């Protein structure tokens, strides 16, 4: 076993807890689990939980299990199981041994339920859903005992067996723990342990028609796997009482080193939702093209958008772990990806709103090849070939007829500008269509300015990007805005009203020829425009904008 001294990483209350459990000799290593319910794709909030659960064990010579919490067959699907495995591995983590499923413990759960019944600690209850609610009482008023609370142990055994054998209808009865109908914790007022569902399960087919509740299955699953620290989000704080009560009342699990639950705050991201139900709504109602739409805060959406696994791990580290619920500024996520891509993304030029620039004193038919760096700060990334000729494309935004003020650094009539990696040019005149839209700009170039300043000492401040027209390749650019108009869409139960109708803008322009075989999902820096990556779901050359070069939201 390796050194278990506390890690140097920034500490948090979970690390402190683990350190103290190791120091006291309670545990000698740390075992965690990530327990997704396979009822949707993973999102950025799950990424935080994954980085925490899989990340923390690395510092303590422990491991993390992947356990699908598959106790509700009605909403689950194997498609989700597969996407979840893929996303975790893509994030750079590996689970311990085989993938685990709560459903593989169904026999054990059933025996545990029988044990509680035999101890007079569980009973079959026939109250309807409405009656159960009424009997539960309120925060101010204690609940009332169910009329079935005093059914004999023998009778409960028989009734529970009948539940399992399908002798009752869905909703006719449930198995409940006999705890305390006047507890100040509502969840301790005889919580449901098992319910009837005539559903085919993706792992156990039609073997079962009774399914355990999360609160019952989760703590037992943790105990079976020897989990030491069961990390979950704050909304389960009260449920920790059931977790402890159940393990303390089941003989095989009531041990000093049994698992304990610790809660941390959920990640909520501005202008996004981290509710799987709401993400599913966006998909089902066609507000987005699917779970991996680049506007979605899902791991698969972020990947398709050009986010790297390293940037998401870095983001999780930056937001940290606490017990305070808050809304995380989306600029933190964006600066994580920007910092990563600034170092790693190859540079290239793309013209998103093209207009033609004709260089009148450059010989027609001549094409010059220029060898330019792939990354100006990293020579090791090598060079790429670009071209220059009589006719090139520049961006519409980079030309204006009359210089508006002395801060303006782009091209204008009689104003000089440098073409990135090439020559200095000066605009002379332009053509526009009948609506006044500029179509072609004409200019002259200074042949003595390739890679150097004008020899007579003229200062040329502005630099614009371009693509040579005969070698340019057409491409589509998808530019994304926030999916929601509200920074906290969670405020609205009906999301439709806060969806941004203009979250996707499609442009058609040109890229350098060396991007014709751009790798999918690998981000490039389109100089002066931002980071873009080739879309994984499109046939042709379609590029998704990952993020701009700087934070423009807060300006
Ligand atoms: P559901 O409402 O379907 O239960 P869920 O968001 O709780 O959704 P799970 O699949 O149960 O999804 O989550 C798996 C794990 O990820 C849990 O341990 C959960 O606490 C954690 N998790 C989910 N959402 C977030 C979030 N926004 N921030 C941090 N952790 C999260
Ligand atoms: Mg959950």
* The CATH topology of the largest domain: Rossmann fold
Give the proportion of residues in helices. 10-25%
Give the overall shape: elongated
The proportion of strand residues reads 15-25%
Bound molecules: adenosine-5'-triphosphate, magnesium ion
**CATH top level of the largest domain?**
Alpha Beta
Spatial separation of the terminal alpha carbons: 52 Å
Describe the protein in words:
The protein has twelve helices and 29 strands. The protein has 555 residues and is α/β, with parallel strands linked by helices. The protein has three domains: 252 residues, Rossmann fold (3-Layer(aba) Sandwich); 151 residues, Glutamyl-trna Synthetase, Domain 2 (Glutamyl-tRNA Synthetase, domain 2, Orthogonal Bundle); 116 residues, Ribosomal Protein L25, Chain P, CATH 2.40.240. A hairpin with a 3-residue loop joins strand 27 and strand 28. Helix 11 crosses helix 12. The radius of gyration is 31 Å and the shape is elongated. The N terminus is likely disordered. It binds adenosine-5'-triphosphate and magnesium ion. Adenosine-5'-triphosphate binds next to helix 2 and strand 8.
